[in-house]
Amino acid sequence: MARTTRNGRSAARRSSLVIDDGLMMGRRRGLLKTWALSLKGEVLAIYFAARDPAAPWGPRLLALLVAAYALSPIDLIPDFIPVLGLLDDLILVPLGLWLVLRWMPAAVMARARQRALALLARPRSWAAAGVFALIWLLAGAALLVWLTR
After folding, report:
1. In this predicted structure, what is the pLDDT of residue 146?
2. What pLDDT is attached to residue 75?
3. 3-state DSSP call for residue 94?
């Protein structure tokens, strides 16, 4: 006779649920990873769209702001603040992306997406990441000096 748990499920059925839940979590992780990569590509495409001379000024300015915020390592609300720190990334960036995608002409976004895909296919540069980190450190130091005077 199969051993049952308190809720009436057999031990074998319970273990298969655990395995199924593990597979579902793996699928979710894969889906989330795919979504995150597509979001990264869209942010990069928005950056390229903002630099396109054919883009109107309103969406162009909004696109620059959204791309700068999304690609910046510094957040409006730091991530270590419980709930609010992650909510700004989950609300502000997608809302900004939606607005830019809605207002930017389709031809401009098509060209920008092609450029973004070409750039994402290239290898990454750690030297460029170091340069950006150095720029942010220098900007932070300048701000600190300015605030202490």
Report:
1. 94
2. 74
3. helix
Q: In which residue ranges of the chain is pLDDT below 50?
A: 1, 10-24
Say if residues 47 and 63 touch (Cβ distance below 8 Å): yes
Closest to 89 (Cα-Cα) out of 101, 111, 102, 71: 71
Rounded to 5 degrees, φ, ψ at 72 are -75, 140
- Residue 124 amino acid letter: R
HEC-encoded secondary structure of 12-73? HHHHHHHHHHHHHHHHHHHHHHHHHHHHHHHHHHHHHHHCCCCCCHHHHHHHHHHHHHHHCC
Mean pLDDT (the chain, rounded): 79
Nearest-10 crossing angle of helices 106-121, 11-50: 110
Of 113, 130, 3, nearest to 49 (Cα)?
Answer: 113
Cα(63)–Cα(42) distance, integer angstroms: 11
Predicted TM-score (pTM) above 0.85 = no
